[in-house]
Design a protein that fits this description.
disordered N terminus, about 525 residues, six-stranded mixed beta sheet, Immunoglobulin-like, alpha+beta
Length: about 525
């Protein structure tokens, strides 16, 4: 028995040894099945510039005297760009950058107070300086450009910690080469700015007004902002060439618009559409987008125009243009266009008004009441009337009715007859028409220079009326209303439009697609 017991012990040990080995092997296999849970946290870039005390720069200064502390503004920057930021300044007068004069419109330029630091002689002067926050000691100090501490200083740089001329071009006045903090208790970067003025003994009495515009850019070594220039100068600077004596409307891209002045003395240009050689007025309006100030007059029933249309000069693909020029998605051929008041389709086939492109050029050169820079003696041409199938280059053409399966993919017009780089404005309460209208008066007379109707030069061009029996078809509402398509769907058979009367604009009205309205186009900045 004892021997039997002794024999069992080694067997038992051996068994345990094998079991232990099995456990170790199993543990290695388990490690190959492990997973790694990855967590990504993105901190968005945030850079803001704010100012307080910007309405305190008021002073009464007698002739022949000098005031060196005309109010005080606090500028505060929060910017978490690791590469830092810079603040640029420029004189800003009469809504135009690069003008650093204090002006009084009733006195004229003879008595402009120009910038400078001289306090003697007969020339009135004004100047500016910046001061860093010193108490409490800032955790994130900023460098005053041109000062002795400025490691980026170049010879001749103005030191804005002392009074300097208000620049007539963008100049860097302060910067940081690393991020400032943006936490709840963050101090950020704080500067104060003050102004001085010397009023000469010969300065006439009056109130003189000007502004300084401060612009935040990041990183700190970003080039200075460009002073907006005329649209033609922006085209020339971009290397664009003229065609038949005009710059091409197709050459105006968002970068051109971004560099152009808003509507003003040099903010309007005449450009040519290479598809048909029509000339249009365009301008950069208060929403910073560039708009056509005339109704589109592209007539695809003209054989020369049709031959010139391509994806290179039209806001549409080659396939869509080919389909468009051949009558759209239902019946091929030019006969499907409504031209000069002649009905060339079955007048009882009402649904064709939705699924075939139709235009009317009957009033193409008719002059109607208009206001603003595109009008002559308060008149402008009507242009072309388009149904929505034609306006969308045949890409938004489908019937309506209970038995119609509306395409799920068509929400807004995907393409249109506007020139390349341009498009029909978006509609509705959040569309581009509504955004533009927020900058202007939409209720007063269109002849008011502060109104949207004046600045957009909305002509009372009416619409083309189609009667389903084919017995009465003609332009209506001319001299009383204007209507312009948008690219935004408002319902199964409708899209938003901009509508106008002689004294009111509605930027978000819905209208059926079978109507025939005019078109304006824009370039987003």
């Amino acid at each position: 028995m004892n021997m039997n017991k002794l024999n069992l012990i080694p067997l038992s040990l051996a068994s345990l040894t094998i079991l232990a080995g099995t456990i170790l092997v199993s543990s290695v296999v388990s490690a190959d099945d492990s997973v790694v849970d990855e967590i990504n946290i993105t901190v968005p870039l945030s850079c803001t510039l704010s100012g307080t005390g910007m309405d305190t720069h008021n002073a009464e200064i007698n002739n022949g005297t000098y005031n060196s502390a005309i109010g005080e503004t606090t500028l505060k920057v929060f910017c978490n760009d690791n590469e830092g930021f810079a603040i640029y300044a420029i004189g800003y007068t009469d809504n135009e950058e690069g003008k650093n004069v204090l002006t009084n419109s009733t006195l004229g330029s003879t008595y402009d107070i120009t910038t400078g630091t001289a306090i003697t002689g007969n020339d009135s002067k004004w100047a500016m300086k910046l001061t860093k926050l010193t108490s409490p000691t800032p955790t994130y100090p900023v460098v005053i450009a041109g000062s002795t501490e400025d490691s980026l200083k170049e010879q001749g740089d103005p030191d804005y910690s002392t009074f300097q001329e208000v620049p007539d071009d963008y100049e860097k006045v302060a910067y940081r080469t690393s991020a400032t903090d943006t936490g709840t208790n963050a101090e950020g970067t704080t500067l104060t700015t003050t102004y001085q003025a010397y009023i000469s003994k010969t300065q006439p009495a009056g109130t003189y007004t000007s502004q300084v515009k401060y612009t935040l850019v990041h990183p700190h070594d970003t080039a200075a902002p460009q002073i907006p220039i005329s649209i033609e100068d922006a085209l020339n600077a971009a290397g664009k060439t003229k065609y038949n004596g005009y710059y091409k409307i197709q050459d105006i891209a968002s970068t051109i618009c971004a560099n152009a002045n808003q509507y003003g003395s040099d903010g309007i240009a005449e450009v040519i559409d290479v598809r048909d050689n029509n000339i249009y007025h365009i301008a950069k309006l208060a929403d910073n987008n560039c708009w056509m100030l005339d109704n589109l007059a592209l007539d695809p029933t003209d054989s020369t125009t049709a031959a010139n249309m391509s994806a290179a000069n039209t806001n549409a693909t080659a396939e869509a243009i080919s389909n468009y020029l051949n009558g759209g998605s239902v019946v091929a051929g030019w006969s499907q266009y409504e031209v000069s008041g002649v009905i060339s389709h079955d007048p009882d086939h009402y649904t064709m008004w939705f699924n075939s492109p139709f235009i009317n050029n009957q009033s193409l050169n008719t002059l109607v009441t208009s206001y603003g820079p595109a009008s002559v003696n308060n008149q402008a041409k009507v242009g072309i009337y388009y149904n929505y199938c034609a306006a969308s280059v045949g890409t938004y053409c489908y019937d309506i009715g209970a038995d119609v399966d509306l395409p799920d993919t068509i929400i807004d017009a995907p393409q249109d007859v506007c020139p390349a780089n341009w498009h029909m404005p978006t509609g509705g309460s959040t569309g581009e028409y509504t955004a533009l209208s927020s900058y202007y008066d939409t209720t007063q007379s269109a002849s008011n220079s502060a109104s949207l109707q004046y600045n957009l030069s909305t002509s009372l061009s009416g619409r083309y009326y189609y009667y389903s029996s084919g017995t009465s078809n003609y332009p209506i509402d001319q001299e009383s209303n204007g209507y312009w398509w948008s690219s935004t769907r408002s319902g199964p058979d409708a899209v938003y439009i901009l509508s106008a009367t002689s004294g009111l604009i509605n930027p978000s009205q819905g209208s059926s697609r079978e109507n025939m309205y005019t078109i304006r186009c824009l370039v987003r900045n």
